[in-house]
Structures are given as structure tokens and as C-alpha cells.
Amino acid sequence: MPSSAEYKTIKATQVRIATERFYVLLEDGRELGIPYDWYWRLAKATPEQLNNWRLIGGGQGISWEDLDEDLSVLGLLEGRKSLKREIVSG
């Protein structure tokens, strides 16, 4: 398994939005398919919001500014999910 240091050099070149997941094309030719429900902001987003993404950090991450969601390629490769924190009122 590659180390985190090796993952840090891998960058995204493109994002493709589909119905149930988004796909990240990496510069080494691999493509990652990530379910929206791994990231609650993306899971609740409209198609228009999902399509308004941009690469950040020279391809080290993806930003959805409208949704206040930034994901790193490293985090995607490591399988990190962002779970919604439920607010409990007292």
C-alpha cells in the first residue's frame, strides 16, 4: 500500500459529475468514483451546485465554493468520509 507521502504527489486533473457519485480523474490515469453520501453537503446539493466545482492547490483538491466543501485528493485516496454532525438541542 502506498504511503501518505506517495499519495501527496498525486493530483486530480478533472472531475466528472454523475447521478449517484462523482469521479475524479488522477494525473496517473486512475479514476476514483466517490458516492455523494460520503459528504453530506454533496449529498444534499443540486445538480447545478455539484457542477460548480474547481480544482485547487494545483490539483491537490476540489472545491465546491457554493457548498463550502473542499476535498483533498489525499483524503479521497485514503477513503476519508465527512459525516454530518447532528446538532442536539437541550
List keywords for this structure.
single chain, 90 residues, alpha+beta, NE0471 N-terminal domain-like, 3-stranded antiparallel beta sheet, 19% helix, 31% strand
Please provide a written account of the structure.
With 90 residues, the chain is of the alpha+beta class. It has one domain: 2-Layer Sandwich (NE0471 N-terminal domain-like). It has four helices and six strands; from the N terminus they run H-E-E-E-H-H-E-E-E-H. A three-stranded antiparallel β-sheet has the order 1-2-3. It has a three-stranded antiparallel β-sheet with strand order 4-5-6. A hairpin with a 3-residue loop joins strand 1 and strand 2 (21-26). The chain is globular and about 30 Å long. The N and C termini lie far apart (45 Å). The model has no long low-confidence stretch (mean pLDDT 89).
| Widest β-sheet, arrangement of strands | 1-2-3
Portion of residues in helices? 10-25%
Unreliable residue runs: none
Largest sheet: 3 strands, antiparallel
Number of helices: 4
The pLDDT mean sits at: 89
What top-tier CATH class fits best? Alpha Beta
Helix and strand composition category: alpha+beta
What is the architecture at the second tier of CATH?
2-Layer Sandwich
In the residues, how many domains can be counted? 1
> What's the CATH topology name?
NE0471 N-terminal domain-like
